[in-house]
Amino acid sequence: MKKNFLRFSIMILFVALLVGLMVFFVNRKSENYVGYLSVIQLSPQTPCQMMGYVIITENDKIIVVDGGTEGDADNLTKYINEHGSKVDYWFVTHLHNDHAGALYKIVNTTDIEIDNIYVSANDKDWYIENEPKRAKFSTDFIDMLNESRIKNKVREPYVNEKINFDNIDIEILGIRNPEILTNCGNNQSMVIKLSYNDNSILFLGDTGVESEAKLIKNQREKLKSNIVQMAHHGQAGADFELYKTIDPETCLFPTSDWIWDNYDGTLKIDETKDWIKKLNVKNLYIAKDGDQVIILK
Asked: For residue 202, what is the DSSP state?
């Protein structure tokens, strides 16, 4: 009898401990995403460079910036499905596969609902003429915007457009620059500033030095942000002048390991690392290190 009672007591304690651990981890997960703003920097799921951010609002709504390649779509989809299988706002900085490929695949292969898609794009002929080696993806993406189930959800942003959503202020500081034909595809990047309480995040996409000059000239007073997404995966994009103007405390690097390690010695990532040292940046989040959650209160 005593042995049976002892076994029963141990079983009860084990079950209680298991339930307690489950509650702890569920609450911990909930704390990561509900009640304040969570920014998830996605990691590359293929050897290709990529950029993707999932932003989860106070009330468990979803904002996506870019998303990565088609090979990154499943990882992104996992986060979207965990939070209602719906994206409230999706911002595409520019029409390169390493930024917009995941959206292309998700639209064509899933039923995920998307309420608003902000894309600043030139017409198809512009990409064919000025970026012929990458034009197929850009033109296919434009066809998808015009012909797929999302065609009524697509919005063309304008400079200084403001969006308020679930206690977040979003402002479009830069859009496409069709007159810039140097490094032209990257220089079409939309620039988005997201503000929440005392925090602000500046998403630069693949902004280059040519569009940077235009951005500083027109938006200098609005560029200061405590968090910045480093342009063009942290190398060969915007230069020190822009980051000095932004004056960030935290840098988000959508950067693969081979870029971060400067695998062949030709990349400009080491120059960028020197810049962030000069600016005394306190926090670095690097995509090569896996998916990372940044909590903003």
From this structure: E
Q: Tokens 């390649």 appear where? A: 69
Pairing of strands 168-174, 162-165: antiparallel
CA dist., res. 204 & res. 191, Å (int): 5
Judge contact between 246 and 276, C-beta under 8 A: no
- CA distance readout (Å), 124 to 127, 129, 135: 5, 9, 8
- Between the alpha carbon of residue 95 and those of residues 119, 127, 204, 211, the distances in Å are 9, 9, 14, 16
Eight-class DSSP state of 230? P
CB-based contacts of 88, cutoff 8 Å, min separation 6: 57, 61, 62, 63, 115, 116, 165
Maximum alpha-carbon separation in the chain? 87
44 three-state secondary structure: coil
**Rounded to whole angstroms, how far apart are CA atoms 149 and 210?**
35
**Which H helix or E strand runs over 108?**
helix 97-109
How far CA 274 is from CA of 55, 73, 81, 225, 261, in Å, comes to: 29, 33, 39, 19, 14
Strand partners, 250: 227, 283
**pLDDT, tens digit, for every residue of 23-65?**
343 333 444 566 789 999 999 999 999 999 999 999 999 999 9
Spatial separation of the C-alpha atoms in residues 222 and 55, rounded to whole Å: 21
The predicted model scores a pTM of 0.89
